Request: fold
Amino acid sequence: MPKFYSTKHFIGYPCTHRQWRADSHCKFVHGYSRSFFFEFASSEQTQEGWVVDFGGLKEVKAWLDHWFDHTFLASADDPFMDNFKELDRQGVIQLRVFENVGMEGTAQFVYEQINPMIKKMTNERAWITRVEVRENEKNSAIFIP
Reply:
């Protein structure tokens, strides 16, 4: 059972997506400046007294930059995928594809990618207990493994 928790917030990731299955305006391409809030846990601290060394999160930031900084997110089963791939090929968009690009799906996707990085970085001493993804100041989704 963990005793120590810490959090880190990464902000300012402008990207676009669409919820193609939605029967609302969410089916149209639209964008937000997303942010990512991580809660880390550990049953022991580093010699410095930390759960996670925030200065050591450069790999996490680089991964977030690649996936969410000025990118176009598409769900893997979007029926317009061929069009998006062509726009990417032409240099119009930076296409990033995963299963569900909505906030809930993004929170789970980010957890599944970042948690192994944290475990490796800390030799399994620390892990992620919660990921919150915000699309704006009003809306977010949380994934708790």
Remarks:
- The mean pLDDT is 97.
- The longest strand covers residues 4-17.
- The chain has one domain: 4-143.
